[in-house]
Design brief:
The protein has about 100 residues and is mainly α. Helix content is about 80%, strand content about 0%. It has a single domain (about 1-100), classed as Serine Threonine Protein Phosphatase 5, Tetratricopeptide repeat.
Length: about 100
């Protein structure tokens, strides 16, 4: 909980910092608060669809909680964003996770 409180303090000073929001979402996942994590991930991608690393984590979260159709959509969006950004590593990770889920 200490890390969560610290990240919240940082976010109070910089509320639209994608890195801080992403880190906070990962902390929420660690304590089992998938709803808060999902909200943060979606907020990041709504504000900044080019923040490629978040697609994988959001889709994995959705997959883990049984929301496979939503997970597939986020994997697909992430692959498009990664391709557009020229981020082959992220594209490959998203594609592998997508294929594991779909096939």
């Amino acid at each position: 909980m200490e890390r969560i409180e610290k990240l919240k303090q940082y976010l109070a000073a910089s509320p639209t910092d994608n890195f801080l929001q992403h880190a906070l979402a990962l902390e929420y996942i660690k304590i089992g608060d998938d709803n808060e994590a999902q909200k943060l991930f979606e907020n990041i991608l709504e504000r900044d669809p080019k923040y490629v690393g978040t697609y994988y984590h959001l889709a994995k979260l959705l997959e883990r909680v049984g929301k496979n159709e939503q997970a597939i959509q986020w994997y697909e969006k992430g692959m498009s964003a990664a391709k557009e950004a020229g981020d082959q590593h992220s594209y490959n990770e998203l594609q592998a996770a997508y294929e594991d889920l779909v096939y």
